[in-house]
Specification:
The chain is mostly helical. Helix content is about 70%, strand content about 5%. The chain has a single domain, classed as Rhopdopsin 7-helix transmembrane proteins. This is G-protein coupled receptors family 1 profile domain-containing protein.
Length: about 375
């Protein structure tokens, strides 16, 4: 993999070791990194513009989706620094920038995880308590939850990095930017920011799927099997992608605590985990493009610049926004409706037989 070992700054004997790769491998690594960065930034930007621009998508669920897209979009801006660091094994951006980079990195990643958890809770209450959900979960409630999520992510990150005894390593050698901590604290950190959220998401989505399937069977709805299969497929992608792309990092931390790893092998693993974590941040827009007509339609409008026309706000018929439209039926109308209207419509839905559950199965994610 490596043709030789050099230094980050050849003129300085105190600099860190640099991994010099063969030219073809270096080109492949930077090309793939550029593609991942582009998909992460522009894919999530398309999601942000779509949800913000079209009124049909202004629902509590889509506000959480918007918040997740913002977190992944912001993560895309530090990816160039991160990829250069893991590919070259050198930090070229100065000691002063290192603490800001580390704070930004941990903050955005934790915010992304919290948004995934919030989406899971949103779908859980929508499926398992649809009438309570339609009465109390409004855009303002979702907005308050999102503000709390971002504040919590920032306060936790700041406390963990600067008030628990951790160290930013920049002086072991010139060209290093690493965060080091006691093993006990690292175990607590990764349990709180990854392991517990992962288990919670798996449990919630499992209950969502089982409950929705049970409702459909209990009331004998005339639901196409393809919808059920599509729902299961979407849930599987959400859960499996999160587990497959994020679990290796947690396992790596455990292995690193228990065993001594050669520095060259450590660099290889860090590189692979960086690519995996980036895939986790860019996979959501790809899922929307594959499964939801509203995203493909809005993407076409952005590419053709139709979105800049004043009439574009109502250009897409609500039926195109199948997830949002389904949730619109379940939640009882627009975000501006008051709780009494929601409750009245909820009672009407309860007399309508299987319609609420059918809508929920369509909009399970």
């Amino acid at each position: 993999m490596y043709s030789e070992t050099s230094y980050c700054y050849p003129e300085n004997n105190a600099t860190c070791h640099k991994f010099v790769r063969r030219t073809e491998i270096l080109i492949l690594l930077y090309l793939s990194a550029g593609i991942l960065i582009g998909v992460t930034v522009f894919g999530n930007l398309f999601v942000i513009i779509t949800v913000s621009h079209f009124r049909q998508l202004h629902t509590p669920t889509n506000l959480f989706v918007l918040s997740l897209a913002v977190a992944d979009f912001l993560y895309g801006f530090i990816l160039p620094f991160q990829f250069i660091d893991v590919i070259e094994n050198c930090w070229y951006f100065g000691d002063a920038f290192c603490p800001y980079f580390q704070t930004y990195f941990y903050f955005v990643l934790f915010a992304s995880v919290l948004n995934l958890v919030s989406i899971s809770f949103d779908r859980y209450f929508a499926v398992c308590n649809p009438f309570l959900y339609s009465s109390y979960v409004t855009n303002s409630v979702a907005g308050s939850c999102i503000i709390f999520i971002w504040l919590l992510a920032f306060l936790y990150t700041y406390t963990f990095l600067f008030h628990t005894g951790g160290l930013l390593l920049t002086d072991w050698c010139v060209g290093m930017c690493r965060f080091a901590h006691y093993d006990d604290w690292l175990m607590i950190h990764y349990t709180l920011t990854f392991l517990l959220p992962m288990l919670l998401i798996i449990c919630l989505y499992s209950v969502i799927f089982v409950t929705a399937r049970r409702h459909v069977k209990a009331i004998n709805c005339m639901m196409k099997e393809t919808k059920s299969a599509s729902t299961a497929k979407t849930l599987g992608i959400v859960v499996i992608a999160f587990i497959v792309l994020c679990s290796p990092f947690f396992v790596f931390i455990l292995v690193q605590m228990l065993f001594t790893i050669n520095s060259e092998n450590l660099g290889q693993v860090r590189l692979a985990l960086t690519y995996l974590s980036t895939l986790n941040c860019c996979i959501d827009p790809i899922m929307y493009a594959l499964f939801y007509p509203w995203f493909r339609k809005s993407l076409k409008m952005m590419v053709t610049l139709e979105i800049f026309k004043s009439s574009s706000l109502m250009t897409i018929h609500p039926s195109i926004f199948q997830p949002a439209e389904s949730e619109h039926r379940v939640t009882g109308g627009s975000a501006g409706a008051n709780p009494s209207q929601h409750r009245a419509q909820g009672r009407n839905q309860s007399r309508a037989g299987c319609q609420p559950t059918a809508a929920l199965m369509t909009n399970i994610f």
